[in-house]
Amino acid sequence: MSMSTAHGAAGDTPWLVVGLGNPGPEYARNRHNAGYMVVELLAERMGGRFKAHRARAEVVEGRLAGQRVVLAKPRSYMNESGGPVKGLSDFFKVPVERIIVVHDELDIPFGALRLKQGGGDNGHNGLKSVTRSLGSREYHRVRFGIGRPPGRMDAATYVLRDFSPAERKELPLLVERAADAVEAIIAYGLERAQNQYNAMPA
To answer: In what order do the strands lie in the sheet with 57-64?
Structure first.
C-alpha cells in the first residue's frame, strides 16, 4: 500500500483499539463490558493472547486489515480507563486519530452500532476519563448499543447487570459485527465504515 494513501500505515504507526470494561470475573458478562468482548474477539482473529503491560492494561500486538494494531483492555476500573489509554498511546506512539475506543452506549438500541470520531461522552464514565487523559475528543468510537434500562431502573445498575437471556442469544453476532466495524475503520476509513455499519442490521 502506498504511503500516501489516507489510511495507509504512517511509517508503521499502529492503531490502538481499546475495549472499555471492568476487570474481574464478576463483571465479565455485564453490559458495561461490551468493549472488552469486542477486543477479545479481535484478539482471537489475530491469533494472539493478552499479556500484561506496564500501562495497567492487557495488550495483544498483531495485524488486522493488513495494518499493525495494538488491542488493549485497561485493567483499571471503567472510570479510570484514561490513564492506561494515555500510557499505551505514549508507549506505542499512537496519535489520537489512530485510537479506536469500543464501548457500551445507553442512547443506542440494543442491536445497533454507531461509529464516529470526536464528540461528547454522553455521561459515559470511561469516555470521560479517556478524553480527560488524552486531552482530546478526536479519537474514534465504536458505540455498542445496549438500550435504556426498563422502568425506573437506575442506569448505573443497568450497565452493571449481565445481558438478558434473550440478548445473550444475539450477543455473539453483535460482537462479531462490532469487531468487523473496527476492522472496517482500519481498512478503509471512518466514512465508508459508517455507511456500512451505522444502519440497523436487516
So the answer is: 51-53, 57-64, 67-74, 15-19, 99-105, 140-145, 113-117
